[in-house]
Write a sequence for this structure.
């Protein structure tokens, strides 16, 4: 669904981005931890270079940046490693006495501030990463309207600390602000981000406004350079950082709220669905037990009607007149017909319930078998069989056999009055399906009743003309439908009929079955 | 026809009982038929308890068992018989209206000797019962311990 709204390039780009993120995050531990070590090493190199070339040594933003990148791309473990390594590097290279792991009393507060910042940054980035890995893919599946924008803003997320750090670095180089100024800006940004996790959209905005006011106030109040150029720049950076973070947080929050809504909607639909499934299963079970009691309980009284009529016929035959004997005969015939109807109906319902065991089936072979079977009963008739080569299909052999037998015996039955019956079996090969037809020169039918042909117990001829209950074509249709095909018929009164059924080709059918939930 | 085995007919429907006995009568097998009208009665007979506590010992030569029975159904009776050392050899023929595959499978899994669907047509029904009676009570050699009676 999402794909319709976006160009293929964007989709590919997004996919490859996602893959890269995901692969690094789910990659093997050596790669992830190695990435973390590399980040810290680069930061250390940059910090040492700064000191070497006479810039004011300010390492905190560089190491913070390393931690941010490691956490965002490599996950929790590497993040902790980055914090520990950064702290160690800071301790060794940047606290008095230099090049030792000892820390002088004067530098101890600076060291603790460093660790606190590193830890907060890591924790925060980790939390943010976790929420976006969960919510972004979910959102792209859901195709929310806010999704595109939110995803775009979220991708900017790692840039926020980066931008802050870069600007801060620039100002440090210019030697105009102190760690405290930067710490305040960053702290405000962090407060806003925390608010983003725990507050509503309005709450976030309120916190952000508060932070902005505080920042402004602090810079205004700070003597003596309250409104100097550097101060204004720094205030601007702080405001921009807070603004961007706020925007992001609000976006995220709105998208999350909408996501939540969708999720609860889905949950509701899901419950509805499983309720339906349960109902369906129950009604299926009921249907099964219904068929069972039909098969068991309905037949018993029928057997008694038949049995006792027969006994009556035997016992009282001599004392009954012709009319009474005919009545008894009719009772017997009716009970037998009802027995046949019950059996047919049960067979029909069994086909609907039975599992299809699909394999490759040679229709050629099936037709050969069916013709041989039918031929035994029709040896005294003159039937010309014309059988074209037929393909191999994918389906339930015994069911497809029933289809062929039903169609062929119909053709034989309805050509009974012909001196020479002609029955042709052939197929039309389509791209995805094959259509098999059985054509005869028999009684045919009126096309305006064609839709009734495949109904259960629907018959277009009188029982005196052609026997049968009218279950054959209904069975054919049910089996073909269960194979994903269609049935149809063409005919004209007294000029024969052609019955068609289509089956998906072997490969298509295999796919179709595989895709079916 | 040297000797006849006793037939235990387990059938709840009185009409089916009558029709079955009528069918067996034609071969003079009806006298040796004991009718149990539910699964519990059938087990009572086999274990010689309740109203059958005074019957002469020995197992029937064959048991014709309906599946749908009050109290204890046919499959439960079959299971009980097959799990009892003293009864497990009794030949059991399920005689039922049910065509259902699951009944067939369960019956055979429980070790039934034959499964016969009662035909609706009376002639076929009579033939089926007669053939069953003749085969199991006359032609078949029942396991040792079955009741036999000289004709």
């Amino acid at each position: 669904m999402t794909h319709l709204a976006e160009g293929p390039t964007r989709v590919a780009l997004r996919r490859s981005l996602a893959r890269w993120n995901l692969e690094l995050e789910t990659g093997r531990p050596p790669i992830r931890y190695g990435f973390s070590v590399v980040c810290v090493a680069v930061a250390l190199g940059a910090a040492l270079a700064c000191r070497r070339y006479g810039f004011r040594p300010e390492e905190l933003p560089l190491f913070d940046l390393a931690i941010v990148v490691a956490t965002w791309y490599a996950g929790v473990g590497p993040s902790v490693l980055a914090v520990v390594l950064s702290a160690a590097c800071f301790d060794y290279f940047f606290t008095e006495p230099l090049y030792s792991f000892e820390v002088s009393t004067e530098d101890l507060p600076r060291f603790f501030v460093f660790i606190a910042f590193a830890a907060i940054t890591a924790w925060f980035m980790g939390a943010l990463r976790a929420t976006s890995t969960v919510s972004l893919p979910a959102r792209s599946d859901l195709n929310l309207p806010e999704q595109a924008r939110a995803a775009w803003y979220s991708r900017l997320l790692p840039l926020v600390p980066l931008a802050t750090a870069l600007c801060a670095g620039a100002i440090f180089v210019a030697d105009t602000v102190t760690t405290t100024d930067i710490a305040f800006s960053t702290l405000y940004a962090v407060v806003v981000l925390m608010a983003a996790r725990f507050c509503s959209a309005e709450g976030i905005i309120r916190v952000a406004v508060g932070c902005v006011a505080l920042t402004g106030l602090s810079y205004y109040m700070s003597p003596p350079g309250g409104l100097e150029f550097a101060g204004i720049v720094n205030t601007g950076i702080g405001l921009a950082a807070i603004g961007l973070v706020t925007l992001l947080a609000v976006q995220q929050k709105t998208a999350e709220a909408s996501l939540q809504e969708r999720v609860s909607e889905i949950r509701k639909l899901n419950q509805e669905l499983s309720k339906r499934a349960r109902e369906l299963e129950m009604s299926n079970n009921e249907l099964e037990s219904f068929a069972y009691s039909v098969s068991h309980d309905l037949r018993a009284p029928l057997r008694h009607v038949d049995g006792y009529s027969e006994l009556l016929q035997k016992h009282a035959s001599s004392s009954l007149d012709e009319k009474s004997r005919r009545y008894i005969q009719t009772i017997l015939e009716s009970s037998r017909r009802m027995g046949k109807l019950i059996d047919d109906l049960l067979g029909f319902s069994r086909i609907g319930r039975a599992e299809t065991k699909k394999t490759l089936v040679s229709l050629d072979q099936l037709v050969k078998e069916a013709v041989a079977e039918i031929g035994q009963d029709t040896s005294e008739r003159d039937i010309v069989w014309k059988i074209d080569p037929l393909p191999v299909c994918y389906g339930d052999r015994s069911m497809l056999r029933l289809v062929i037998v039903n169609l062929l015996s119909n053709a034989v039955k309805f050509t009974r009055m012909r001196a020479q019956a002609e029955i042709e079996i052939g197929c039309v090969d389509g791209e995805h399906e094959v259509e098999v037809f059985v054509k005869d020169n028999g009684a045919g039918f009126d096309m305006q009743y064609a839709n009734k042909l495949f109904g259960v117990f629907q018959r277009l001829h009188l029982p005196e003309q052609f026997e049968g209950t009218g279950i054959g074509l209904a069975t054919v249709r049910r089996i073909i439908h269960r194979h994903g095909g269609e049935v149809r018929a063409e005919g004209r009164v007294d000029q024969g009929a052609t019955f068609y059924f289509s089956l998906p080709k072997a490969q298509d059918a295999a796919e179709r079955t595989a895709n079916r939930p | 026809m040297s000797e006849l085995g006793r037939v235990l007919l387990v059938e709840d429907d009185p009409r089916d009982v009558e029709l079955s006995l009528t069918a067996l009568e034609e071969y003079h097998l009806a006298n040796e038929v004991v009718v149990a009208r539910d699964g519990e009665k059938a087990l009572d007979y086999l274990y010689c308890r309740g109203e059958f506590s005074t019957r002469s010992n020995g197992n029937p030569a064959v048991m014709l068992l309906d599946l749908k029975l009050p109290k204890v159904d046919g499959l439960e009776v079959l299971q009980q018989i097959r799990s009892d050392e003293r009864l497990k050899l009794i030949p059991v023929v399920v005689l039922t209206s049910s065509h259902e595959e699951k009944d067939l499978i369960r019956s055979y899994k429980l070790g039934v000797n034959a499964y016969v669907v009662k035909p609706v047509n009376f002639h076929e029904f009579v033939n089926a019962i007669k053939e069953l009676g003749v085969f199991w009570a006359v032609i078949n050699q029942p396991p040792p311990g079955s009741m036999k009676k000289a004709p």
